[in-house]
Write a structure and sequence with these properties.
Pfam families: HTH_3. The protein is mostly helical and 138 residues long. It is 62% helix and 3% strand. It has 7 helices and 2 strands; from the N terminus they run ααααααββα.
């Protein structure tokens, strides 16, 4: 997903018009239109202002992470957690070799298990950030 699409989605989620968002970021409505249509790229200061206003990371706005609250480092941490869990479950280091009642599971089930592990790892990371981040940094 491109930066413009993420800006549009976040703006619509907050039920803002382009003009209202333009006032928040101190640019023109035409500039917001150009960003959302990927005709222009926001400056670094505009990206920072948008991230602060919407409560997301700049990495998310720039398309570097799929989760609004996560930085690229958080995404790597989640993947490392999932990889460690998968590797700890199997001698062959692959979900495809997990045994279910003595039978090998198929690739589709393996992918579902991996997706579930990713979801759990993401949620636990978000909860840890909420619990352990001092109020002055929120």
């Amino acid at each position: 997903m491109m930066t413009g699409q993420r800006i549009r989605d976040l703006r619509k989620e907050k039920r803002l018009s382009q003009t209202e968002l333009a006032d928040v970021v101190h640019v023109s409505q035409q500039t917001i239109t150009a960003w959302e249509n990927d005709k222009a790229e926001p400056s670094s200061s505009a990206i920072a202002a948008l991230a602060d206003y919407f409560g997301v990371t700049t990495d998310y706005l720039l398309g570097r992470t799929p989760t609004p609250e996560f930085t690229a480092k958080n995404e790597r941490d989640v993947q490392n957690i999932v990889d460690d869990l998968i590797n700890g479950l199997s001698n062959e280091n692959s979900l495809a070799y997990l045994r279910n009642g003595g039978e090998e599971i198929d690739e589709e089930d393996a992918e579902l298990i991996k997706a579930a592990l990713e979801k759990v790892a993401r949620r636990s990371k978000i909860l840890a950030k909420e619990k352990f981040t001092p109020n002055k940094y929120k």
